[in-house]
From TrEMBL:
Keyword vocabulary terms for this entry: Disulfide bond, Electron transport, Membrane, Mitochondrion, Mitochondrion inner membrane, Respiratory chain, Transport, Ubiquinone
Pfam families attached to this UniProt entry: NDUF_B7
Coiled coil: none
Name this polypeptide is given: NADH dehydrogenase [ubiquinone] 1 beta subcomplex subunit 7
Organism classification: Eukaryota, Fungi, Fungi incertae sedis, Zoopagomycota, Zoopagomycotina
Function description: Accessory subunit of the mitochondrial membrane respiratory chain NADH dehydrogenase (Complex I), that is believed not to be involved in catalysis. Complex I functions in the transfer of electrons from NADH to the respiratory chain. The immediate electron acceptor for the enzyme is believed to be ubiquinone.
UniProt source species: Thamnocephalis sphaerospora
Keyword Lipid biosynthesis: no
Membrane topology: Peripheral membrane protein
Entries under InterPro entries matching the protein: NDUB7
Amino acid sequence: MSADASVAPPVAHDDDASPRMIASQEEMKQNRLPLEWRDYCAHKLIPLRKCRYDNYYLPWRCEDERHAYEKCQYDDYKRRMRLATKVREQQAQEKQEA
């Protein structure tokens, strides 16, 4: 087995496809989600907030929900950074051609 066989191939990302909102506006309104938190990860935040409320915000409870929400936020951040890099590269290329 060669050393290259253990290396995973690069992951192809679809930067042009915007993520899909899973939580509806009505769900977010019913769960009294503040406007600034109504993003692509709102569907993870709703159960996290409910769990925190039910468990009096005990830090050792709701770890799975918190981790899922933070992972969603991180993945969204990475997606936006890939998109921003792509836009900067396109702008630099257009500037070079002009």
